[in-house]
TrEMBL record:
Subcellular location, principal: membrane
Naturally occurring in which organism (per UniProt): Mesocricetibacter intestinalis
Membrane topology: Multi-pass membrane protein
Key words, A-Z: Cell membrane, Membrane, Transmembrane, Transmembrane helix, Transport
GO cellular component: plasma membrane
Protein name, as recorded: NCS2 family nucleobase:cation symporter-2
Length: 441
């Protein structure tokens, strides 16, 4: 049964589309600026250079999101996919950044490494065959499970070492937002159901304003208008950095494939090899453009799949409008700073619901597969090992850097294990009696 309020090709009225697009913007903006902020702060780049990284990330995220949604020839999946900077590349980027090459080496290695994704995109029709329902459902569920710790930290108000972490006031505010979102999704009609997330977050933001929780320092310090500068840092091409970035791009192909399959489930779209080829090609070309425009590589954002699952709004035109808002945020940094001023518990209340919906989607997909010992092993091992590195990333600290780079993401490890186990585990033998039972069922 199709329970979408707006399907992929639907075009809601402009005012409603703008509200729904803002919903996706709120879900993605923190993640998009987090990577350039981390890289800029850890490498101790001058403030103007870090601002350049952030502005370019927002602007190019918007451009690539628009292309991903609407398509440009063979480029783009033509589904509602928000694109943004990816944490998969942070370890490789910092390793290069601390070398003599610095930021120029990061961007040069990223530019060359993007060829891995661009070339790999043409093999996606073959790769699609490696994703039967047992693998797809496991990957989708693993995406949601990997995002839950992020939502929990938002819910608690920061990182575990923060003094205000899990302060009862933070938990109450996050719960307040969560309850509003649940109530609107369950009982709201029309716009109130479709825009449940943004309405819940607006209510939380207003409550935070009244309590004096909102810090406007970033808004006051932000530039009103700024144009990102191409090749601001220059380009250098360290061989070791290119290898590290290429590995990260291989990992991203697996993650993006999982995200696109989850997106297909959320939008009621059958994902073909052609879809995957267009989506991954857009990822690769977008990352190459990002390097030329002085920011870090991109991938699809899984958190926005949760927005679609929760609200039932799958219109690619709405998410194209999110791309327009991201471009404006890149050109007008004060706009982005205002969004970033939203307190973390407000994000946490909505985020916990969004990411949990992705888990539910994965469980529903797995509910349709045959209940067998083989499928049970694939799911159990993949999810167990994926959660192991998600909840205890230090598990890999004493292993070689290459291993940590490849297996450090729970989504990647879970996806790879599901793929490998599906290929090597023998199919369950079905006896005559079992066949009769299945036919009767």
């Amino acid at each position: 049964m199709n329970n979408l309020l707006y399907s992929v090709e639907d075009k809601p009225p402009f005012a409603l589309s703008l509200l729904l697009a803002a919903q996706h913007l709120l879900a993605a903006l923190g993640g998009i600026i987090a990577v350039p902020l981390v890289i800029g702060n850890v490498l101790k780049l001058p403030t103007p250079d870090t601002i350049t990284l952030v502005n370019a990330a927002l602007l190019i995220s918007g451009v690539v999101t628009i292309i991903q949604c609407r398509g440009l020839g063979p480029i783009g999946i033509r589904l509602p996919s928000v694109m943004g900077t990816s944490f998969t590349f942070v370890a490789a980027a910092l390793a290069i950044g601390f070398s003599e090459s610095g930021a120029a080496g990061i961007l040069g290695a990223s530019l060359v490494g993007s060829l891995v994704m661009i070339i790999g995109s043409f093999f996606m029709p073959y790769i699609r065959k490696l994703f039967p329902p047992v693998v797809t459902g496991t990957v989708v569920m693993m995406i949601g499970l990997s995002l839950i710790p992020v939502a929990v930290d938002w819910f608690a108000g920061g990182q575990r070492n923060d003094p205000q972490y899990a302060d009862p006031n933070n938990l109450l505010m996050a719960t307040f937002v969560l309850v509003i979102v649940i109530a609107l999704v369950q009982w709201g009609k029309g716009i109130f159901s479709a825009a449940a997330i943004v309405i819940g977050m607006m209510a939380g933001y207003i409550a935070c304003l009244l309590l004096g929780w909102v810090n406007f320092e970033g808004v006051h310090n932000a530039q009103l208008f700024a144009v990102p500068q191409p090749l601001h840092f220059g380009l250098e091409f360290p061989l070791s950095g290119i290898i590290g970035m290429s590995i990260a791009y291989l990992v991203t192909i697996v993650e993006s494939s999982g995200n696109f399959l989850a997106l297909g489930n959320a939008t009621k779209t059958e994902i073909s090899g052609k879809h995957l080829r267009g989506g991954v090609l857009c990822d690769g070309l977008g990352s190459a453009l990002a390097a030329l425009m002085s920011t870090t590589p991109f991938s699809s954002f899984s958190q926005n799949i949760g927005v679609i699952s929760l609200t039932g709004v799958a219109s690619r035109y709405v998410v194209s409008l999110t791309g327009v808002l991201l471009v404006l945020a890149g050109l007008f940094p004060v706009f982005g700073a205002l969004i970033v001023s939203i307190p973390l518990p407000v994000l946490g209340g909505a985020g916990l619901m969004m990411f949990a919906m992705i888990i539910a989607a994965g469980i529903q997909m797995l509910d349709n597969i045959e209940r067998s010992k083989r499928n049970g092993l694939i799911i159990a091992i993949s999810v167990g090992c994926g959660l192991a590195v998600t909840t205890r990333p230090e598990l890999l600290d004493k292993l070689p850097h290459f291993v940590k780079e490849v297996l450090g993401s729970g989504i990647t490890l879970g996806s790879l294990l599901a793929l490998i186990l599906n290929l090597i585990l023998p199919q369950d033998k079905v006896g005559p009696n079992e066949t009769e039972v299945k036919k009767a069922a």
